[in-house]
Amino acid sequence: MVQKKSKAAPAKSEAVPKRRGRPRAYEPEVALGKALDLFRKTGFAATSLDELSAATGMNRPSLYGAFGDKRELYIKAYARYRADARAAMGDIFRNELPIRQRLKRIFAVALDIYLSGEQGPRGCFTVMTAASEAIADPDIRAMVLEGFAELDKAFAACFRIAKQKAELRVSADPETLAQLASATIHTIALRARAGVPRRQLEQIVNGAIEMMLRG
């Protein structure tokens, strides 16, 4: 009698370790940039969660998980805008050029920022939307006031150096001139958003510079 050969037991496959969690299908900084663009265009109140979801490519639970609620996302977008503006303007403020040349470069970069946008000039986030939200939100108000103070301080440093180099009159007050320069920044931001052509904005800038340097 022939004995049947027993079949060998199939070899156990090596266990593949399972991945924990679900990998993110988005890049947070890219998504924040998309939210920033949308808030800058339509403001806080007029921007819906559905629009933010469409712009970022993230559903609502993912938005909440990554950035918090709509207000938190707005504040993070505003902080990102301010960081980008500092990066764009910082070197010019620190570079000790003659005051006229330095002011022209600062205002030129500001115009580049305010006139940018695929669907038209976007102006300044602070002036166009954050200032409105600052009325009712103390955290946003603190950010806006801090931004104003930073800009005044940066301009004042420029004018103090210019005064030390005898580029300004002895009676010139760097702090007052700084506030005038900041006011010029805010003016061209508003007018840029309203569609005023760059050439006219540059005329405003040139006139403001002449007035400041006579002071």
Structure explained in plain terms:
The protein is 67% helix and 0% strand. It has 215 residues and is mainly alpha-helical. It starts with 27 loop residues before the first helix and ends with a helix.
List the helices and strands and how they pair.
Blueprint: H1 28-42, H2 49-56, H3 60-67, H4 70-94, H5 99-114, H6 125-133, H7 138-164, H8 174-193, H9 198-214
Helix pairs in contact: 1-2, 1-4, 4-5, 4-7, 5-8, 5-9, 6-7, 7-8, 8-9
* Number of E strands: 0
Helical proportion? 55-70%
Largest sheet, described in full?
A: none
The H-and-E topology, N to C, reads as HHHHHHHHH
Structural features:
215 residues, 9 helices, elongated
Summarize the structure.
By secondary structure, this protein is mainly α. It is built from 9 helices and no strands. Helix 1 packs across helix 4 (about 70-95).
